[in-house]
């Protein structure tokens, strides 16, 4: 699965109607609502949208015939294996009716084109861990973990004897990484997940 690095837009004219797609990464439903509010254009005839966050998803045809806008936008998101993404496709009607098939192609096509040109990042499932270590091991543990791909430091709290470090580790490699920490500290580091 992938998510977007930044907000992306794409516009196209189809039979005198203008379609503008805007896509962005979203973390939760509150961000989705804020994005939809910000991207909905009051002067447009339709602001159709779809979003997916994990197993949760929603879509809206915003007055277009049922199934001709929101669902094709969601299919564009799913077709490119995206998660934590919202897309709004705004339509300014140009006077020529597109028919159901034309609307599906226009909305789905605008969303797909917008998403395909967007810069993406792989979503790596991760686990949060806390590692307590003494001062003599601190620099070595931090340096080793931060040199690994997809490992991020989330915090550091100093204690009387050392520090407690918070990291996000890739879920598939977490066990191996924690074994390495135990080996390099001769078992002095205490790990909690």
From TrEMBL:
| SUPFAM superfamilies per the UniProt record, alphabetical | EF-G C-terminal domain-like, Ribosomal protein S5 domain 2-like
**Matching InterPro entries:** EFG_III/V, Impact, Impact_N, Impact_N_sf, Ribosomal_Su5_D2-typ_SF, UPF0029_Impact_C, UPF0029_Impact_CS
> One Pfam annotation, family name?
Impact_N
Ranges for domain UPF0029: 131-188
Q: Which GO terms describe its molecular function?
A: guanyl ribonucleotide binding; ribonucleoside triphosphate phosphatase activity
Q: Name one GO biological process term.
A: regulation of translational initiation
Q: Where is the Impact N-terminal domain?
A: 15-115
Its domain of life reads: Bacteria
| Coiled coil segments of this chain | none
Name of the protein in its database record: IMPACT family protein
> Which species expresses this protein natively?
Ectorhizobium quercum
